[in-house]
Design brief:
This protein has 13 helices and eleven strands. With 377 residues, the protein is of the alpha/beta class.
Length: 377
């Protein structure tokens, strides 16, 4: 692959808005192999992001090797974070990708510090670490080894089949630290997939990835996410998908209805008006009160998924140890009552808590920020 770019030590007058002054900016790269996509390589100052205290997420730290995502999922809730870089939440999110090329070495220093408390670190919660560019940049092997070598439990959620390249590393890491693996797959319809998530591997390719993860001896929970009202939420569609997931070896399944935050909302409704104009008004009614689906709809969706999982012999959530109203490992965007699927979170209980895992966090608290120093919501 021929990568064309130029090193920069000062502000780049030809860079897109916000990039010329981006802290740690190295160069801009374009290649015929990624037609229409521009990569902005940066040196990050920190690899670990602290999750805000009011978040429903069941982990305190995340890692995002990339900002923006070539998957092009029209519903992606992370779209609005691109506006912090003076990009737009639509086309730019899909085509202007920030790559933290030194993230592996920065992470190794952070998790090697004496004050690091070896807390669960999650990846794939904002943009996908195994989007197609990872095949070229190869950032994840260094991240995996830094976490495993430091005794830090971690989880990965992805739609990307590039992950198969690192299965040997993930299996080795899983022998020494708790590892959770998750795949996101919400539909089997190839035609709908092509317009809804145009840059992602096909549903069949992701089912094959699930099989390969399980064959490597790793757990793998599947998020049926997001479920789209009137498009992918019928009992028959859900039952067929869950049956396929069970056949592929999923350790657990949970589902999440479509969550439309600002940025994602406008982009999604644009797609909907082009592809299914008959659904625009029904969706406007469903989301008239904000980003979340009505509680009644969420409860009905949960019942459908639970019934399909029971028929397929699958647990719908992370299991009794990670379920219930008092459980802290609970909650996802758009539904604080939902659980992560079994296998998608590190199973500390199964391995036993080590001394450093039971200590309170001594890592100095920080606010989650982008690489320009601006707070990330």
């Amino acid at each position: 692959m021929r990568w064309e770019g130029r090193s920069l030590s000062l502000e780049d007058p030809s860079a897109l808005p916000g990039m010329g002054k981006l802290a740690g900016f190295v160069r801009t790269v374009r290649t015929p192999d990624f037609a229409g996509v521009t990569f902005h390589e940066v040196h990050c100052r920190s690899a670990l992001n602290k999750v805000p205290g009011n978040s429903p997420m069941p982990f305190g730290w995340t890692i995002n090797p990339y900002r923006g995502c070539t998957h092009g999922c029209v519903y992606c809730f992370a779209r609005n974070t691109h506006t912090y870089l003076e990009f737009d939440a639509g086309h730019d999110f899909d085509t202007q990708i920030v790559v933290k090329i030194n993230i592996g070495e920065v992470l190794r220093k952070e998790v090697g510090a004496l004050r690091w408390a070896h807390e669960h670190v999650a990846m794939g919660t904002n943009t996908d670490p195994y989007q197609r560019a990872e095949g070229r940049y190869r950032l994840m092997p260094a991240i995996i080894s830094a976490l495993a070598d430091s005794g830090t439990p971690f989880s990965i959620l992805t739609k990307g089949t590039v992950l198969a390249r690192d299965l040997h590393l993930l299996a080795a890491a899983g022998a020494s630290v708790p590892v959770g693996m998750g795949v996101s797959l919400a539909l089997l319809d190839a035609e709908l997939h092509a317009t809804l998530e145009p840059g992602t591997p096909t549903p069949r390719a992701r089912l094959d990835l699930l099989r390969r993860i399980r064959a490597a001896g790793l757990p793998c929970g599947v998020f049926i996410a997001p479920v789209l009202p009137y498009l992918t939420d019928s009992p028959e569609q859900i039952a067929q998908l869950v049956a396929e997931l069970a056949d592929a070896g999923a350790t657990g399944v949970s589902g999440i209805g479509l969550h439309l935050r600002p940025g994602a909302r406008e982009w999604f409704f644009g797609w909907l008006s082009r592809t299914r104009p008959d659904l625009v008004v029904p969706y406007q009614r469903l989301y008239s009160r904000g980003a979340n689906l009505p509680g009644e709809y969420r409860r009905e969706l949960s019942a459908r998924i639970s019934a399909a999982c029971a028929d397929a012999g699958l647990g719908s959530s992370a299991g009794p140890a990670l379920s219930g109203e008092e459980n802290p490992l609970r909650g996802v965007p758009g539904d604080r009552d939902s659980s992560f699927p079994r296998g998608s979170l590190p199973d500390r209980a199964g391995r036993g808590e080590s001394a450093h895992q039971t200590q309170p966090s001594l890592f100095e608290p920080i606010t989650q920020r982008d690489d320009g120093g601006r707070p990330v919501g």
